[in-house]
Amino acid sequence: MKKVVTLGEIMLRLSTQTGELLNQANALSVHYGGAEANVAVSLAHFGYQAYFVSKVPVNPLGIAAERHLKSHGVHTEFLLKGGERLGTYYVEAGVGNRSSQVTYDRKYSSFSQLLAEEINIESILEGASLIHITGITLALSPALRELILLIFKKAKEMGVLVSFDFNYRAKLWSQQEASNAIKPLMPYMDICFCGELDAVQLLGIVPADGSLPQEERLKYYYQKIKELYPNIRWFSSTFRTVISATSNRLQGNLFMNEQLYQSKVYQLEPIVERIGGGDSYAAGILRGILEELPARQIISFATAASALKHTIQGDCNSFSKEEVIQFAENESGVITR
Amino acid sequence: MKKVVTLGEIMLRLSTQTGELLNQANALSVHYGGAEANVAVSLAHFGYQAYFVSKVPVNPLGIAAERHLKSHGVHTEFLLKGGERLGTYYVEAGVGNRSSQVTYDRKYSSFSQLLAEEINIESILEGASLIHITGITLALSPALRELILLIFKKAKEMGVLVSFDFNYRAKLWSQQEASNAIKPLMPYMDICFCGELDAVQLLGIVPADGSLPQEERLKYYYQKIKELYPNIRWFSSTFRTVISATSNRLQGNLFMNEQLYQSKVYQLEPIVERIGGGDSYAAGILRGILEELPARQIISFATAASALKHTIQGDCNSFSKEEVIQFAENESGVITR
Amino acid sequence: MKKVVTLGEIMLRLSTQTGELLNQANALSVHYGGAEANVAVSLAHFGYQAYFVSKVPVNPLGIAAERHLKSHGVHTEFLLKGGERLGTYYVEAGVGNRSSQVTYDRKYSSFSQLLAEEINIESILEGASLIHITGITLALSPALRELILLIFKKAKEMGVLVSFDFNYRAKLWSQQEASNAIKPLMPYMDICFCGELDAVQLLGIVPADGSLPQEERLKYYYQKIKELYPNIRWFSSTFRTVISATSNRLQGNLFMNEQLYQSKVYQLEPIVERIGGGDSYAAGILRGILEELPARQIISFATAASALKHTIQGDCNSFSKEEVIQFAENESGVITR
Amino acid sequence: MKKVVTLGEIMLRLSTQTGELLNQANALSVHYGGAEANVAVSLAHFGYQAYFVSKVPVNPLGIAAERHLKSHGVHTEFLLKGGERLGTYYVEAGVGNRSSQVTYDRKYSSFSQLLAEEINIESILEGASLIHITGITLALSPALRELILLIFKKAKEMGVLVSFDFNYRAKLWSQQEASNAIKPLMPYMDICFCGELDAVQLLGIVPADGSLPQEERLKYYYQKIKELYPNIRWFSSTFRTVISATSNRLQGNLFMNEQLYQSKVYQLEPIVERIGGGDSYAAGILRGILEELPARQIISFATAASALKHTIQGDCNSFSKEEVIQFAENESGVITR
Amino acid sequence: MKKVVTLGEIMLRLSTQTGELLNQANALSVHYGGAEANVAVSLAHFGYQAYFVSKVPVNPLGIAAERHLKSHGVHTEFLLKGGERLGTYYVEAGVGNRSSQVTYDRKYSSFSQLLAEEINIESILEGASLIHITGITLALSPALRELILLIFKKAKEMGVLVSFDFNYRAKLWSQQEASNAIKPLMPYMDICFCGELDAVQLLGIVPADGSLPQEERLKYYYQKIKELYPNIRWFSSTFRTVISATSNRLQGNLFMNEQLYQSKVYQLEPIVERIGGGDSYAAGILRGILEELPARQIISFATAASALKHTIQGDCNSFSKEEVIQFAENESGVITR
Amino acid sequence: MKKVVTLGEIMLRLSTQTGELLNQANALSVHYGGAEANVAVSLAHFGYQAYFVSKVPVNPLGIAAERHLKSHGVHTEFLLKGGERLGTYYVEAGVGNRSSQVTYDRKYSSFSQLLAEEINIESILEGASLIHITGITLALSPALRELILLIFKKAKEMGVLVSFDFNYRAKLWSQQEASNAIKPLMPYMDICFCGELDAVQLLGIVPADGSLPQEERLKYYYQKIKELYPNIRWFSSTFRTVISATSNRLQGNLFMNEQLYQSKVYQLEPIVERIGGGDSYAAGILRGILEELPARQIISFATAASALKHTIQGDCNSFSKEEVIQFAENESGVITR
């Protein structure tokens, strides 16, 4: 079993029931998750030795977050304990044409106040095949930006695959800040999850001709980025058409060997839970790359994993590799009995 | 903050869970609502001093109904206490092609036995900008019909805008009874919520040519009614296409200044709760009129308020003016984070 | 009230909530049901003296299963007590493009170990108009196969209508086993529920020309089977198009008097619970035959009963004859109040 | 199996969760029950053919009430359908030193408006061993008082045992009204459930010397009543010491053959549900009398049945005769595994 | 109706179910409360115009906190909007000999960062009869300490009664800090809630002779404090004996006119919710003082209000004055029906 | 961290809510547990590398059972996959004087059909400090008895401490069977959990003088067993006084170095969940022995761990060593805030 490492924040999520606003709720559902934590969970279910690096407070919420990770088989040896609080956020789940609303209460969290020197970079990368981080982590503090740069450099040295997901969140930082933080990391990446908006707004690529089909535009952006950062071997993203909060269409894109590969288009309806859909997708791509699968298999697997995730509650995918493959081949809705 | 007044019954609603019949239920959800009460709640959330006039029994259910109103900021100074019982109704929520079933148990309620002399009409109208009442209230007793007539006359004298929603309920009275009760009120109305069926069946307007488009027919009816009652300055209604109990299409209509204005068509799917959708719409129209907005803004706001209501549980809309406007401009289902 | 008899297994069903897998669940919903038990329940609600013949253990689960039957008015005089356990199964309800997953834990159940001699065949058939059994019962043991053959023979002698539903379940037995068990029963049937796959795979009918429309193919199969078993007067089945686990299309087919009659096509969306949909349909057909209704009424009633079942939780239909008829005539989703 | 008959009202009960007031509740638990209905349920579980005579409305609540009865094996052939509504009541369950609060909403119920002529007295008593009625039924209307008198007279003629439970409820009628209604029934009773307060306040017995022990006083009252109505062969009641809403002590008393027999004293703590405790006791006494058991066995069984009832939710006892006997012999709290 | 004012923090409370730890919970109950907010709620239910002064963030949680206050009739005109977050805390409810555990997450809350200049002291005190504040508010920031001092001084000037509850929380500050903050406020108080530990540890009173009975010791402390601060006319506190988290004994103490008055001792068992018990008590004392009741009535009412609070969920008492009086006179646990 | 190993069955437990019987339940709580699994969980929380050896089926319930173990940090490398089913049992939780009722459905489980050769004994014991097994495992099959004997012998050889808990269950086997199975294991034990009844009924020790105090009798039995099996260095058991299902008294006993040590007596009231109380105790004893603590500390810690367990839901203790110690020192019920 290969070792894979992700680093980021794990948060407590408190959500209302469908059709209920926070001011109506007298109970909230409890989940734990975060972009990188969710990727670690998926990779653990796909059969990897997944390690999650983070920091949680020494209180019952920190214990609960760790227990969540362990229940999915994620290794928590690098989960630091300390700091003031566990990042928290509240979700009023959208339905129909009302969108989900996220209320963040994550400032001053233990992880956001992590110092670079608390992490022993060599030991977390020791023996690892891959390290994965997202833009959310960069948004949290200058110290984290500095830490990630150090990690990426060391990973490069040690021959560990470097994966980065832009995951831009307008509620956390400005495009300018994001751009400044991400650009210095680009030369170290092997795998890059980003889309059209990221290319234009964060990397400053000249916009493609708007009359081109969506996939042509995406191809153009990936080629342009690759010209700047030839170290990047895989680019990936999804096309998501939002019909309503309950109904989406989803297609995966993978650019490798100078070619764009696309999955089938999934009709996601009804959506049980959209949160974590992107992380599940990223984990699927990473698994395909680690297994050195052909491009079509990688993108088919990753998009199926994401589609499947939309049908269950919680932030993370607990389907095994086999279940995803079976679903990818035979998605239907027919009862098995 | 302008004072607005509504008068009607507030009831206890007991509903089954989705996909459950009353004979399967071992718990029922509790809500409090009623057409006029719901309008008061919406107007309170839109920033008005909303007063609700009614009567509830001196028991824990009466207290709970009052508490519901207060929690939404509705003033309860004119909520009388006494009588025998709180009107109650049971809802088996429809789903797909099975309709919702309402079982009324509202007879002998405190409000339905209210006497005209219990209400100090001058004091409730004192300083008010608007009074709103629906046909449901008229259906409950001759005494209430008499009371409403007195109120409408006095409102006219005092320069208070008079709004009336036909809200015809076949389970409560016959078309003939409704017609007899509503016609005498027509000369006092400024704002009238009614549709094609109301025009033909309750006001006796000669049916329009059935081959005309729906909006042409509606325009014809409003013009005809206005010929009879030139005092009415605003007519409004919705076109609702019922695809299933879970999926509707909704469009708002406003007739003013001799013109029919229509909102965009909302696709409501899935519908979390349809009850209160019309009241939310009416409150939206009233807010637009009170704010003296242009017709297009009135109808856009009102229909958005109604669409939004369909995505939450409970009888009433607790969205603020700002939230409705934002939704009207940008309804999508895209998660905000 | 006519007496009708069904015989089969009643099981405990434990299901997760929507969007939840078994490994996420900390509570499971409890239902009791089984193909023949569900048919008995429907027939009781349609106004028959329905008797259910089975065997349950002497423990609280056996008591609960009996209580379930009684609450729906099914007679339990022929419900034997004894054996080791109540058959159980777990359902992870499907949603969208993820199918429902059934995990059976029914081996060694009291019913599956029933011996033919435990049943007094004459007494259960005494005065009955109809006996109904499905292929699931045959799949459970050789002893049950032998018992059913004896019952069918005796029913024929006593002039009791014999109804059989193929209900093939790949998780329980092979096609060959099913074929061997069902063929000897064919000469005793009056009513036969089977479809294209059953005809080809279990009865060995030569496949129809695949380019023919679906209904023509079905007609061909029914004619072919009737050539072999002229005793069968009614054939029936449904066409179900699975768009997703949440959205299906359903149409009923009835072949009698050498003609194929088809119901309207129901759009089932969203589906609250699919389990029991077929049993509800079968009960509808049986009621129509017992009432000697015209073919169109039979098929319209049965398909409506099945459509209605999809909108409620639990294995069985608790709608009355009148409610089904009203729905069949006026299915819409419009709220009644 | 002997036939037994009870007649009374069955109501919908809506209760809050422990520690919750009605004005805090957003869901209410649903139960169906009533004094005589509960006795019928217990007797059905003890192995009798129990018939419950009443009237419920033709709506989903009436159906649900009937289904409740059937699920416990009570025969509903004499359950009339019609009238305006199902009697309803709300319970805020007490806890510790806060008492339960009952809010009745039972006026105008179908049963309370039942007319004597709707009941075919001969047919309900045909073949019965016992008829049981309580004072609550008398409190509901003059027509019901008249009906009960007719029933008691006919029962006497037909040799059916007549049982009456005073069950005085101050919220329903005055002591004077109760006294006037009950006295004419006394000459027809064989079994009478009443206590010290009933004897003094409703039957006008001269109070016993207050310094006597409680059981001596009770014996005195029973002797005095028997002097007036020598037809009564069994008297019974319980001594209940209320430490708090959660903790009671309970002892059963049976007076027969000129002697007072007392059960052991049960410590009931915590009490899950007190409602129905008395009905469960009465059913236990009736079963003992019908079985012609020795006095000590009667009173031991009845008090155990009542104690057991306090440990489960809902209005009625669903324990079998065997379970009650086992509990009576071996009450402990030790887990069996 | 007299105007009363309280000022403090209102927080979101998230609690586990009974017998569940945070690391086991997948749903949390939602309540809103805080010492001063709870007192305001109680006083509103007792019939006062209660105003609550605080600051909440502009997000759905701030809205929900305000809605909670309004639903209890508390005026929110002085509830400021702004800042970063709503103070939050988590409760693992204790049971038996396991204590409740509180996990605070209240740092950086909007209220804790309130500046003195944000409050218009004159306008909040205008026309008020009483202002009530607790030590928790002082613990939150120097700015709040300064603000409270200004408020107390101004209240004195304006003839508003000043009430202060020590409410010492070791998790928020040290005894030394508390002492430094509270002492300067003492000369302005009219009503002071404090106990033996407060007197010794925070006010530096020489400890009483430990062999004296508890009430003698308390009297001694109150006399000593009064020597130092003769302005204080009422002292109050409770004696609480903790048998277990589920079972307590409670007695109220009131010192006025140089005498100590004590209530009866309540046995609280089982305790539904202990949080808010002290606030309910304080509100009871304040109501008695405002009504100028005799000492015995004040202490009896306040202790009853607190006992009653322990029997319901949530932070605050929603019983009316009449309900508390009835309970005080007739606490029992006997069901009323 | 020391390695410890337990081997036994892990089952699915389905329980009703408090005050609810199985025939009333429409949802059941889900837990996973078993005597040896629970000990492993406790030891993992106490800081050991705990391994659980067992066999679960390849289905979602097997996955869920494994996930339960992992969430508590138990190593599942030796959890075999295969066989027919997961052992299941149903619990109707007792309350007051009604006992809990356990309905087993564990026959034919994967574990009960485990063959000795499926286990690699050397590898499970490799590097372990302790192996713990209970009598329940022996009861399940002859193959398991044989396996355990081989394991105990090998453990002795390898210097691994051998711990055995009699855990006699009358529903699983007779005293004679148990005696035959356990006696051959005695010579290999280092730690033995047994009580008076075990000594007399299973080991055939001559009964002690019944007039002796309970602790004297226990001492006598332990001395007698030690005479027969001098290899046993530690004996332990609890005295449990069952006042009701809700209220127990518990005291721990430890016999070592020829002396009997007893813990304080805990009053357990109310009991949230009794299941797993004994396993929690056993784990506490084992931890004390492994840490080579003084006898008084061992018994104090173990009994506190068990008392704490009774206050939470689920089969197993998730308190850390520190939490247990803090509770042992300071059990009270006082809220910490």
Low-confidence stretches of chain A: none
Indicate the multimeric state.
homohexamer
| CATH topology term of chain A | UDP-N-acetylmuramoyl-L-alanine:D-glutamate ligase
Helix coverage percent of residues of chain A? 25-40%
CATH superfamily of chain A: Ribokinase
Verbal overview:
The structure is a homohexamer of 337-residue chains. Chain A is α/β, with parallel strands linked by helices and 337 residues long. In chain A, helix 1 (35-45) crosses helix 9 (277-290), helix 9 packs antiparallel against helix 10 and helix 10 crosses helix 11. The mean pLDDT of chain A is 96. The longest helix of chain A has 17 residues, at 142-158. In chain A, helix 2 (60-71) links the parallel strand 4 (49-56) and strand 5. Chain A has helices at 35-45, 60-71, 121-125, 135-140, 142-158, 175-182, 196-202, 214-228, 277-290, 295-309, 321-330; strands at residues 3-7, 11-15, 27-33, 49-56, 79-81, 88-92, 101-105, 128-134, 161-165, 191-193, 234-244, 247-256, 259-262, 266-268. Chain A has 11 helices and 14 strands. In chain A, strands 1, 4, 5, 8, 9, 10, 11, 12, 13 and 14 form a 10-stranded mixed beta sheet that branches. Chain A has one domain (3-329): Ribokinase (UDP-N-acetylmuramoyl-L-alanine:D-glutamate ligase). The A-E interface holds A 14, 21-23, 25-31, 59-61, 63-64, 67, 84-86, 88, 90, 92, 101, 103, 105, 107-108 and E 14, 21-23, 25-31, 59-61, 63-64, 67, 84-86, 88, 90, 92, 101, 103, 105, 107-108. Chains A, B, C, D, E, F: Keywords: Kinase, Transferase. Chains A, B, C, D, E, F: This is 2-dehydro-3-deoxygluconokinase. Chains A, B, C, D, E, F: InterPro entries: Carb_kinase_PfkB-like (IPR052700), PfkB_dom (IPR011611), Ribokinase-like (IPR029056).
